[in-house]
Every structure is written in C-alpha cells, then in structure tokens.
C-alpha cells in the first residue's frame, strides 16, 4: 500500500475507534436476535403477510425462507428512475426462483436537480438526502426482512438510501442500478449551446432542442456528475455487482445483472453460512476506497459532503483533510464530462470501472482486503459481465485502456493528483475541484463582487457590469440559510466571461457539485454566512485570493473584515413556498458542510462528527 493511504487509513481508524465500536456492537446485537420475523407476534406477522399468496404466507411463517425488503426510489418523471417501474416484479420472480420471497417495503422520494436547477425547489435538494434516509428506515422498520435491495441512482438518493440502510446495519444489502441512457448529442455541443444562450447568440428554442437531444430517454444522465459518481462508489465500496453501473436500461444484460444481484444477496443472509451485513462491508477501508475512486475518476464534489455523512452513519469519522491528502497521491485516470468531453457510455466502453480498480490495486492505491457482497477482496470487482450460451458469466476486464483520451493507466495518468483540494484562511475552509480547470485559472487574486442570489448575478451580467476580473461571492447559500442549493445557473455566464479573457472565480457557501467545470470555484465554505462565517462580511471591492496550489483562501483586509458587523439576511422568501416552510427544523439543526450537512450529526453514530 502507498504510504499516504496507509497513514490516512490508520488515522481514520484511530479517530473512529469509539464510535465504530459502538456501532458494531449495536448491529451485532441486532444480528444475534436472528432472522427478523422471529421477533414478531402472530398478529404482527399476520398483518405483514395479509396480502400475500398462500405459498408466500407459508414461507414467511416458517422462519427458514429469506425474505428481501425492496426499497425503491421509482418515479416516472426522472429518466434515471423510470426503469425501476417493473423491478419489484423482477426481484420477486428472481427470489422465487431461488426459493425465497421479496416484498416491496417502501418507496423513498427522488427529486432531480436537473429539473430544479436555479428554481425554488432546489432548496430542498440536499435535505432530501436525509428525508430519503428516514424513509428507508421507516420502510425497513417492519422488521420482516432478512436482507434488503435498494433501488436508486441519482444525486441525494443513493447516499440517503445508504445512510438509511446503515441504520439497519445487521442486514445484508445490495444496490441495483438501472444504468445510463444511451448517448445523445455530444457534451461539447451541449456546453457550447449553453454558453451561446448565456451570451445571447441563440434563443430558448435552440437551447431546449440542444438539451432535449442530450437528455433524451430512460436512464441516468450520461455526464459524470453526482448520479454516476454514486454508481462508481457503490462498486468501489463493494455493494454493487462488478461492471454493472453503466449497462443501459432495457438490455438483456441489465436484467441478468438484476437477477444475479438477488441471488447474491440471498446467499448473504443470517439463514446461510456466509452472513455478510452491510455494516461490516462499510468499514474504514471501504470508505477510503470510495474516496480514492472518487478522486481517480474526477467525481462529484457533492461527495465531500455525502461521504462524511455516510461514514458517520457507520460510526466512521472522516474530514476534508483526509480527502485532500488522499487527492495529493491518487492520480486522475479518467476524463469524463465535465472533466473531458466523453460520456459514461464511452468511459465504460474504454474499460470502465474494472480497469480503474485494477490499475489502482496494482499500484497499491486501494485496499484489497475488504468485504464485498461477493466475498473478501476487491480484486473480484475487476471483472466484467458477459454471456455464455445466453447465461450470465464473468470475465477479466480490460488490462489496457481502449481509448487513452478517456481512460489511462496509473503509469500515464491525466494528472498525478485527483484534483480535489482544501483551501483555507481568513474566510474559512472550502473545497476546490481543479481537475477540469486549466492551470492558468487555478489561482486568482481579484476584487469581490457580492451577489445575494444567482438572479442578481445574471442581471448584472446581462447589464454588462461584469466585463472585468472579479471573484463572484454568493454568501447565505449554505445548509442553514437556504438548504445549500447548487449554483449551476452561474456556470455558463462565468464560462463566457473566462472565454472573453477575464479572470473570474466563484466563492460561496453553497454547492456546485458534480457538474463543476472549467471555472475556479471555492465552494461549501464553512463556517457558512448565517452561522457567523466571515464570507458574510465580504463587500464589493475586497481583494480575494484563491490559491488552489498552496491551499490558501484569503482576503486582503482580514482585520477590517473581522471588525465588520455580521449582516442580517432576510431569507423569508427562501423559506416559504414550494414546501420549504416544512423544513424549518432541518435548517435549524443541520450541521456544517464539512460535518456532512446532516440533521443526524447530533445523534447516533455521528454524534461526535467534526464540527469546524
């Protein structure tokens, strides 16, 4: 193992010792009670199987047949989740073929950031993760299940499902994806039309046509944002079948993989000899592997929040320093939009995740000695699915990239580091992602222009006020302020200004997430403005320095900044309408970004999470 990875892993294990031990004790006590239905009274059980057929009732009453609880994020307006419509029937059939049963335990909400981007609904986006975790816990709380299947793809949904599943850490759990949509128009064409629209060169009709050509059918959006980063994580952390993340919906292979996932999880229940609960799969090394996968593939900055919250749910404490230190030694092996022009289908065809895992293992950059749904060892995840006489089979994955413009080896990476860095200083701490930023733009020293909202920024752009070097500062966008919305509405405008030769950057306590692109952005600033963070005291003209190379986040007049009165933000309009009034308890109790932006940070396994 690489020395730095060993050191970070040991540090995380030491830091987490007390909470991890408490978590493992709790789930082992739950496991010692045996299959869940033993704890139910006859009345409880009768209610739980009243709608089942007679054969299923006999199986459920016998306490010797495993029963799978299905938790699904299906809805038919999200392209990524629409294919899940018939998955419960497929899972029940696959379970029956193995002599087992499956019940639909419950649904969880699934919202699409692509739909709510720049809209009021985006203020609920991050909070939806914890709602999904709560919904998952409610679904499994009937205690009828010996294992669980989680059906989810997109941004907050997989982290929410995983946090909820970890609260039932004594259960074996498998994640089953639905796959990405087939390739539409190129990412280069899409990005160009967006910039043309921002610059006024094309109208709304042309923009909508371009967007519809890119997002055109069932499946995950094909760029490498949070949704597809989620799928990578589930493979790297051992909860998904190898090579299954990016198999398109509706294909025969997709159905074979679903059937196989059911067969695999049935073999891991307490009723068999290979009992493997999710709480023991997701340990410190699995979390480190997930971070390394994120860095090596240029994944979403959202996971600098989600991975902290996921780890805490398993009694594990990580922070941004851990991620930044790992990033300094993990090479960037993939160029997938927005870090390149390829989409995930092209990445998969070039060798995909199996190639990346093999390269990292061979270089001593991943922990192999971990548990997965397939048994001990991560190297099994280097394989890829194929067919043999119409049946699912496995073969070794590619040992050389089939397209070096998309995927490269550790020996010849796109970059020697992963590109996620921490910057800190007078203003606080923030995350920057530089893997898609030209080196000429990775540092900036320029005056601040402060905006209360994305709309105020775009109005200034349209009025021609931003033809200069500046750092756009958007405070009061953090979790306690507005739920920490993504600020992608700014991206095309900042891109246009940068293309015109101006040095521009973004500084915010909000998010940019998986589509963070070519403009330098110091995001997720903590402490946030409404929690007293100094980002809230910045005024127009203050000289801001963001130095991603040296990890610096400075303001030239730090002394006067500290002496200024903290502004009062009237956020009433952001706290009402579109359901936002229902989330006041979330806003009042959410932790900071580096502590996972979670309402669970003050209880359970995450009670001692870092608070900066």
From TrEMBL:
NCBIfam families: edd. Pfam families: ILV_EDD_C, ILVD_EDD_N. The gene is edd. This is Phosphogluconate dehydratase. Gene3D superfamilies: IlvD/EDD C-terminal domain-like (3.50.30.80). HAMAP family: Edd. Residues 405-597 form the Dihydroxy-acid/6-phosphogluconate dehydratase C-terminal domain. One of its GO terms (biological process) is D-gluconate metabolic process. Residues 66-379 form the Dihydroxy-acid/6-phosphogluconate dehydratase N-terminal domain. Binds 1 [4Fe-4S] cluster. Its EC number is 4.2.1.12. [4Fe-4S] cluster binds at residues 154, 221. GO terms for molecular function: 4 iron, 4 sulfur cluster binding; metal ion binding; phosphogluconate dehydratase activity. Belongs to the IlvD/Edd family. It catalyses: 6-phospho-D-gluconate = 2-dehydro-3-deoxy-6-phospho-D-gluconate + H2O. Its cofactor is [4Fe-4S] cluster. Catalyzes the dehydration of 6-phospho-D-gluconate to 2-dehydro-3-deoxy-6-phospho-D-gluconate. Keywords: 4Fe-4S, Carbohydrate metabolism, Gluconate utilization, Iron, Iron-sulfur, Lyase, Metal-binding. It comes from Woeseia oceani. Pathway: Carbohydrate metabolism; Entner-Doudoroff pathway.
């Amino acid at each position: 193992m690489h020395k730095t990875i060993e050191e970070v892993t040991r540090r995380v294990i030491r830091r987490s010792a007390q909470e991890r031990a408490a978590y493992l004790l709790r789930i082992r006590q739950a496991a010692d009670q045996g299959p869940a239905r033993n704890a139910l009274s006859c009345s409880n059980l009768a209610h739980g199987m009243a709608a089942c057929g007679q054969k299923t009732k006999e199986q459920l009453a016998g306490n010797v047949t495993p029963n799978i609880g299905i938790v699904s994020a299906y809805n038919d307006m999200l392209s990524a989740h629409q294919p899940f419509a018939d998955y419960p029937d497929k899972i029940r059939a696959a379970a029956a073929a193995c002599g087992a049963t499956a019940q639909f335990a419950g649904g969880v909400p699934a919202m699409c950031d692509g739909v709510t981007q720049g809209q009021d609904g985006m203020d609920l986006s991050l909070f939806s993760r914890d709602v999904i975790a709560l919904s998952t816990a409610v679904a499994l709380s009937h205690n009828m299940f010996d294992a669980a299947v989680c059906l989810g793809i997109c941004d907050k949904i997989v982290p929410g499902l995983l946090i909820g599943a970890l609260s039932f850490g004594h259960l074996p759990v498998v994640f089953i994806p639905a796959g990405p949509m087939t390739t539409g128009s190129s990412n280069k064409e899409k990005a160009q039309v967006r910039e043309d629209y921002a610059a006024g060169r094309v109208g709304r009709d042309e923009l909508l046509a371009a967007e519809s050509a890119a997002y055109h059918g069932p499946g995950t959006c094909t760029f490498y944002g949070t949704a597809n980063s989620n799928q990578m994580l589930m493979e790297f952390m051992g909860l998904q079948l190898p090579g299954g993340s990016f198999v398109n919906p509706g294909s025969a292979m997709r159905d074979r993989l679903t059937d196989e996932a059911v067969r695999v999880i049935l073999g891991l229940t307490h009723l068999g000899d290979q009992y493997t609960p999710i709480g023991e799969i997701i340990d410190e090394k699995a979390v480190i592997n997930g971070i390394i996968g994120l860095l090596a593939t240029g994944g979403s900055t959202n996971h600098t929040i989600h991975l902290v919250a996921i780890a805490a749910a398993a009694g594990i404490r990580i922070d941004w320093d851990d991620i930044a230190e790992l990033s300094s030694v993990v090479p960037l092996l993939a160029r997938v939009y927005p870090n390149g022009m390829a989409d995930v289908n092209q990445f998969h065809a070039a060798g995909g995740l199996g190639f990346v895992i093999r390269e990292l293992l061979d270089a001593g950059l991943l922990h192999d000695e971990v548990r997965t749904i397939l048994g001990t060892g991560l190297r099994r995840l280097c394989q890829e699915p194929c067919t043999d006489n119409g049946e699912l089979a496995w073969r070794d994955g590619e040992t050389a990239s089939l397209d070096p413009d998309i995927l490269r080896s550790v020996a010849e990476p796109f970059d020697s580091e992963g590109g996620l860095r921490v910057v800190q200083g007078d203003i606080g701490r923030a995350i920057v992602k530089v893997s898609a930023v030209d080196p000429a733009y990775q540092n900036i020293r320029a005056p601040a222009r402060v905006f209360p909202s994305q709309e105020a920024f775009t109005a200034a752009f349209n009025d021609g006020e931003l033809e200069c070097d500046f750092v756009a500062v958007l405070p009061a966008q953090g979790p306690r302020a507005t739920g920490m919305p993504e600020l992608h509405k700014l991206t095309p405008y900042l891109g246009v200004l940068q293309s015109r030769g101006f040095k521009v950057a973004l500084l915010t306590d909000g998010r940019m997430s998986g589509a963070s692109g070519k403009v330098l952005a110091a995001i997720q600033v903590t402490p946030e403005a409404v929690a007293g963070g100094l980002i809230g005291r910045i005024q127009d003209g203050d000289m801001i320095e963001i130095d991603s190379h040296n990890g610096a986040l400075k303001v030239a007049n730090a002394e006067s900044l500290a002496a200024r009165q903290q502004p009062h933000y009237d956020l009433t309009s952001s706290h009402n309408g579109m359901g936002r009034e229902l989330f006041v308890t979330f806003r009042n109790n959410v932790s900071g970004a580096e502590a996972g932006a979670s309402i669970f940070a003050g209880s359970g396994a995450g009670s001692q999470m870092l608070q900066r």
